[in-house]
Amino acid sequence: MNSRCAACKYLRRRCPPDCIFSSYFPSNDPQRFASVHRIYGASNIGKMLQQIPPHLRAEATESMYYEAQCRVADPVYGIVKTISLLNQEIHHAQSQLAKVQAQIAFYNAQVHGNNKIQNVELPSSNFNNSLANQGDAFPHPTLPLSIRPSWSM
Amino acid sequence: MGGSSPCASCKLLRRRCAKDCIFAPYFPSDDPHKFAIVHKVFGASNVSKMLQELPVHQRIDAVSSLVYEANARVRDPVYGCVGAISYLQNQVSQLQMQLAVAQTEILCIQMQQEEPALPTQMDQDEKSLLLSNNSFNNLQHYLSFASSSNVIQDPLKRESLWT
Questions:
Q1: ipTM over 0.90
Q2: Which of A73, A93, A122 is the last residue of a domain?
């Protein structure tokens, strides 16, 4: 017995055999489609899924659902708040790492009797390949968030 | 300058731009791409509803975040912003591991510098064991901090994204 998928039930229409939503919005989870539809709209979801290869559509739907939930929970910032917090966390960890590596360099300089601290070479293993240089991959959203990251408390 | 020109939204939607157009303050006519991308991903109707549900002073931030999300989704149609989060979480984990290792190294150096205070009868094996135990305890502490520093809450019901 064919039942309609959650999308077609929500949209009150017949669910065709080749319905693009049926694989990703089963009828036993109506809230899933409702969330995604509320943020993106059924038409946009359908267009986006059609442009994605079939073997990636499940993951695309999952990510859209997650983003939609974040937007419903936080209508102002949505998932972008998480990205901003992570960028802050990275920045903080990089600062801490730089301080500790400078300390290591200082101690090493002491051990080797080198007092010319300004010429001390920082350990090259990790920091120079640091993720600071890769931070441009995801530009920091410039939002005036009032959220304080947990590590700063 | 003559009368006000339609905002980018009304230009794209080919309609008259009313004085109280909800989009006009956030989608000026000199940046048509901004509204185009938001409309492509979310739809003008949904954006309008979202903005109407927000107090005016929060709408500019909401628009900024919607534009950011839309850009991420266009750039990566499968994962969108979630791909960015996965990448950033990996960065955080790696940095925290590096920090833990560096902190351990500092402790070792400090302990070596304090070595003369240790009992002189202790042989080399015992000293190594003492150093490695303390290093391990501190590393464990930092590792547990790293695993507990999980910004993503539960909705995906997975420990890490896209494993």
A1: no
A2: A73
